[in-house]
Amino acid sequence: MLPVVLTAAVPVLAASENGHAGKAGASKTAAPAPLPGSASDTDFFRCDGYAAPKGKVDGISQESFIFGGTRSADIRRGEMWIWGETGVAACDRALADARLIDAFWLRRANLIQAKALHSIAANRPEQALTLTTESGALGAAHDDRYFTQSIGAGNEGVRAYALIATGRKDEAKAAIDRLRTGRPFAQSIQQLATRLQLHLDASFSGQSQEIRNVIPLSPEKAGSLFWMHFLHGNYAEARAIAPVVSFDLPKQRGGWTLHGADQNVLDGIGLRSTFYGAWAYADTVTGHNDHAASLLTEANAEVEEIMAPPQPRSDGRPPKKKNVEEYERRLPYARKAKDELALWKAAINFRPRVTIQPIGETHSAFLKMRLDTLPIAPDILMNVPQENPAEKAEAQTALASIRNRLEAERIAALDFPVKDVIALLPRPETPKVVPRLKPAGDGYFLSASGLTRDREGKSDIWTIRYTHLLAPIAAVEELAMLGAALTAKKEGYDSLLLLSRIGIARTTNVTSYYGGGYQQNSGYESQMRVRFLNASAIPQELQGMEWRLIPAQRVIDELANRYTEGGITIAW
């Protein structure tokens, strides 16, 4: 009999999605009841996640200001929990409300788009298709390009989602392609297109190809593709994508702290060790033993450095208390990482024995060495001796069980409910919130908005950031790409190779000396760590990575007419 442990030693393949935290609030006074035939404030929120219009404010692009004025603002959609028929009814009441005056046509278009999503949740996708057309007609009537690239792009996404629900796959694919090509350098728009494509085609081959296609613009996807292939037993493919995986994030600018950054650094110690151990295992399976050994040596050296205690200060005094506390926090994570690297090395050394020793010995050693904690059971099962048809059949059954479970988990991770769709839809854009490309400065004195750049020594690797107090994330992403492309050209290069990237929603926490405080939305920031190079002179270490290159001129041609440069010369 095959040991049960060999059929179960594969970790759960879990989905990880960006979430939004919401807070429940209470009011001491009840909201006034709506007039007959009008909508309540809750109806507006229940429909599209934004507050009800009030006076001169549409609730989606503007907020009230002093002396009865209005101004553009970073208004974010609230978290929505109610979908389907209840949402459709709320949208109908909101769309009929007298507060939704003609000047608020942008909000009307957004409410209609939201009603389309509620209709899909209510199993009425054909109605949703009609509604996306109605929403788009409002933008066309006003000949507004900002509508086209924001709510209009979202309508393409909703349309694709509805077409998938009706089974019209070719039309859905066409809508997804239109969404992609409309804003090819906005990572958030491409993320929506990717989720829709995987909702359309959830096959393993379809998912792996889709992820590979988006890696040039979103290199953070490389890690998930590596683990897809590794868990599936595609060790050559895992090894090929491994060099793309990066744990080195863009350098942060001063004055802001990433939420959870300290814990992410600690967790990253183990994530790096797990990845390097798996990469070394894939190297071994594919016959690249020397490279596997060098990977483990390098990974162990990194962990040893993390485990080193802080040294006394230059004047002989003990290390600072802060440095000692940081060391004590990271030490347990480093020890665990070191133990895991030892496990991967043991697994690599154990693998050749599997083919020559009895299965009972393999079972005992596998448990004794704690190799059941590593996701290598399918590979071990493939290599255990199968001396008769019964053992062969049992091994195949066990392998099928593992693979079926992994496949079910992979499919479950691709689930794309309506609440996730609306969270990815682009926010409305208006002329007042779409910024110019301008510098925020490269030194200590940085403005709240604009382009910043940091070069890593004398290398060709730069951190490029664009931040803005009002602009939606898609515009900020494009401006960061445009800034990177212009900088590359100035430095004499024709191509970009993105190494890592993050998008940030910024919030200012305001506190008072007298107690209490509040949070204020403070715009978005796109950061990327990018290497500049020339396509005709690829460095040796990047041979085979040509598919990741993004031509700088292509970015400039796509975006230069969309964003005025505000006097920028990229000479600062």
Characterize the structure shown.
This protein is an alpha+beta fold and 572 residues long. It folds into three domains: 41-202 and 417-424, no CATH class; 248-375, no CATH class; 450-559, no CATH class. 50% of the residues lie in helices and 10% in strands. The chain has 21 helices and seven strands. Strand 5 and strand 6 (517-533) form a beta hairpin. Helix 4 (105-121) runs antiparallel to helix 5, helix 5 (125-141) packs antiparallel against helix 7 (151-166) and helix 14 (289-307) packs antiparallel against helix 15 (321-354).
Query: What percent strand?
Result: 5-15%
Number of strands: 7
H/E element sequence: HHEEHHHHHHHHHHHHHHHHHEEHEEEH
DSSP helix fraction: 40-55%
Mean pLDDT: 88
**Ranges with pLDDT <50 over ≥5 residues?**
1-34, 567-572
* CA gyration radius, whole angstroms: 27 Å
Structural class: alpha+beta
Q: How are the strands of the largest sheet arranged?
A: 3-4-6-5-7
Largest sheet: 5 strands, antiparallel
Structure described in brief:
Helix content is 50%, strand content 10%. The protein is an alpha+beta fold and 572 residues long.
Compile the SSE list and pairings.
Elements: H1 4-8, H2 41-48, E1 62-64, E2 70-72, H3 85-95, H4 105-121, H5 125-141, H6 145-148, H7 151-166, H8 169-182, H9 187-200, H10 204-214, H11 222-231, H12 235-241, H13 261-285, H14 289-307, H15 321-354, H16 359-368, H17 377-383, H18 389-413, H19 418-424, E3 450-455, E4 461-468, H20 473-490, E5 495-511, E6 517-533, E7 550-551, H21 552-559
Antiparallel strand pairs: 1-2, 3-4, 4-6, 5-6, 5-7
Helix pairs in contact: 2-3, 3-4, 4-5, 4-7, 5-7, 7-8, 7-9, 8-9, 9-10, 11-12, 12-13, 13-14, 13-15, 14-15, 20-21
